[in-house]
Amino acid sequence: xxxxxxxxxxxxxxxxxxxxxxxxxxxxxxxxxxxxxxxxALMNPPTTHAQASLIAAIQSVLNVINGLxxxxxxxxxxxxxxxxxxxxxxxxxxxxxNQAKALVTQTIGQYRALMQNIFGINLKSATLAHxxxxxxxxxxxxxxxxxxxxxxxxxxxxxxxxxAGASPADRAMMDMDDALAADNMxxxxxxxxxxxLTLQVANNIEDAASQAAPGxxxxxxxxxxxxxxxxxxxxxxxxxxxxxxxxxxxAHENALRKRGATMTGDVNTxxxxxLKRN
Length: 278
Fold this sequence. Notes:
The protein has helices at 2-22, 26-43, 48-91, 94-119, 129-138, 146-157, 168-210, 217-277.
């Protein structure tokens, strides 16, 4: 029985020591002390002498709590308060952060709607049925209707003439010109759809900046940098499409020059043949 009592006292002491380190407030310390005292009283029914010893033990524990432990807890609270003040007043000043948030919100309210209206200006100009249909498809910012774009292009600019209707060289140039024009229109539609996503990302970044928590500014900045790089990539894609179109125009003009040179050579040959007959 004595061994069991000593074992329970030892276990209680270990648990009491652990929880004394874990608690944070004086109320928790007091509740833990009273709980330990109650557990000791239940494990060892007090006699008059035991009661006096128990009271003396409890008083000793309270003296330690009100002495060394109280001083340590006060020091910990002072350190936590100093660290919190450092973050709020030096590292991330709450007043300045709130001021920046208010400025972002004000800027969004002043300019977002105006910029959205600029991007939403109706630029359609075609009036005839087939050109208007082609223009609508070109400007709808969709990428799932390329077949409709090809059909509308053919309805507007016509299809290739039959084999007997034009020379092979002319048909090849027509086909290449049509293909490159359709390719660039598809690239334009893809760019418009990507621009819509970029604008949505920009709006999300602005909203995040107006509600950002202290210390999160680097993450918002990194997101904005990534979005900027994506926007530059779209610009480069459209520039590449313009260069392809310019290269095709030069190739078309050179093909005409080559054809003219060939025709000139044929005429010279025919003239020489006529002069030889004479």
